[in-house]
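Same chain as my last thread, 65 residues:
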Amino acid sequence: MAKAQTFAEKAKKSTEARGKKCPVCGTVFQPILLVASEQSKSSGSWKFTERRVQVCKCNEKEVYA
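reply #2:
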């Protein structure tokens, strides 16, 4: 049989941050989609490059700069 949960346990679980934690600062990583515009060398047209980045307090200045 499953263990009965109390309301306090349910409330505590909903307030916890989910996801992987940074080993350096201990905050939870925030996944973002980083979009940058780059000019193509061959045709000279502008293209968008998209990549997924995990951001925490340690690297947010490098990512957002």
